[in-house]
Amino acid sequence: MPFAFLKRKKGRTIFIGDVHGCLAELRQMIQVLRVQPIDRVILLGDLINRGPDSAGVVAYVAERGFECLMGNHESEYLAELDSSETYQKLYQQLGPTLHSWIVNRLYYIESDLFMAVHAGLEPGKHPAESRPGVILNIRTWDGSGKDMKNPQNPAWYSLYTGQRPVVYGHWARAGLNLRPTTIGLDSGCVYGRFLSAWILEEKRVVQVPAERVYYVPPALRK
User: Fold this and answer.
1) Which of 46, 122, 129, 160 lies at 20 to 30 Å from 70 by C-alpha?
2) Is the full-model pTM beyond 0.85?
3) Which residues pair with 183 in a beta bridge?
4) pLDDT tens profile 106-159
5) Distance of CA 119 to CAs 17, 93, 115, 159, 166, Å?
6) Is 149 helix (H, G, I), strand (E, B) or coil?
7) What is the per-residue pLDDT for 218?
8) Which residues contact 129 (CB under 8 A, 6 or more apart)?
9) Are the CB atoms for 191 and 216 separated by under 8 Å?
10) Is 145 inside any structural domain?
11) Pick from 33, 56, 72: which is nearest to 186 by CA?
């Protein structure tokens, strides 16, 4: 007799890190989490690029009514669509409805209990006060946002002084990065590592291993 999981009376808030076209791992994550209609699922952006099925991931997320932030890869897709054969091909796979869905992604989602952004927060500012390029790309902070990758500068999260947990993705090299008030969930699934999720109410991480390495950064290619 199949085992039936009892329906929960109260939904959970579930955040999922960068998927990058890894549809099989996303499907498995949703199964492992036993997501139910009362749960709120928020993906942190970068659904597309580098992995095997960008259009499939977008369709899967949109069809299920999951929430998703704008990531730097979605922003790049929109900015370069007219000039990029790769992105024109992706548009053909998506179609106008899913393309419009990407256009309408938010740059941040917040409640009294959390703040969710793709990459991070500009120190001392609410994301509504920041340039989109900052909250889509920040890793380290130089005081102006001109160089947000320099490892000699402090990580943005080391400068965060708020009390609400900030949940973010984007920084795969840092991997799963759990701190008292910041939760980094890009654990490099597309690089053959893990897809990570964090359940707000339980303060619990769930990980699904990548089926294989889908993408090797140019600097590491022989």
Assistant:
1) 160
2) yes
3) 167, 178
4) 999 999 999 999 999 999 999 999 999 999 999 999 999 999 999 999 999 999
5) 11, 27, 12, 14, 10
6) coil
7) 83
8) 122
9) yes
10) yes
11) 72
